[in-house]
Every structure is written in structure tokens, then in C-alpha cells.
Amino acid sequence: MPKLALSHLEATLLFALLISVVLGVVTKKNDKDRLHYGLYCFGCFVATVIGLGWLMRLGHG
Fold it and tell me: Is 30 helix (H, G, I), strand (E, B) or coil?
């Protein structure tokens, strides 16, 4: 099996994508709501990662 080498950002975005898909599927009843909620969750995850990344950069100097 080939080795998968992901950067920290790529791994975090992949995790966010997978969690967003699961949350969309298990919490909503129709496909339109699932898609919208999944995209909303993914956007929130990405915004949080970017925000925390900037906080760590500012805190580290």
C-alpha cells in the first residue's frame, strides 16, 4: 500500500471534510439540507483552523 504523506493543513482539511459529510448525513433528513449543513460545517471548520492558525502565529512571534 502506498504511503500517504499529508501536510498538517491537508490532514486537517481532510478531517474537516470527512466530519462535515458525516454530520450532514446523520443530522438532516433530505439531500438539500444535508448538502447545505455539510458545507456550513466545512466552512466553520476551515474558518476555525485559519483563525487558530493566525492566533498561534501572532502568539509565537
Answer: coil
In the structure grid, which three cell numbers stand for residue 41, read together? 460545517
The pTM of this model reads 0.85
End-to-end CA, the chain? 40
Q: pLDDT tens-digit profile of 9-29? A: 999 999 999 999 999 999 999
Give the model's pLDDT for residue 2.
82
Amino acid symbol at 27: T
Q: Which residues contact 35 (CB under 8 A, 6 or more apart)?
A: 24
Please state the three-class secondary structure of the chain as a single string: CCCCCCCHHHHHHHHHHHHHHHHHHHHCCCHHHHHHHHHHHHHHHHHHHHHHHHHHHHHHC
Helix, strand or coil, per DSSP, at residue 35 = helix
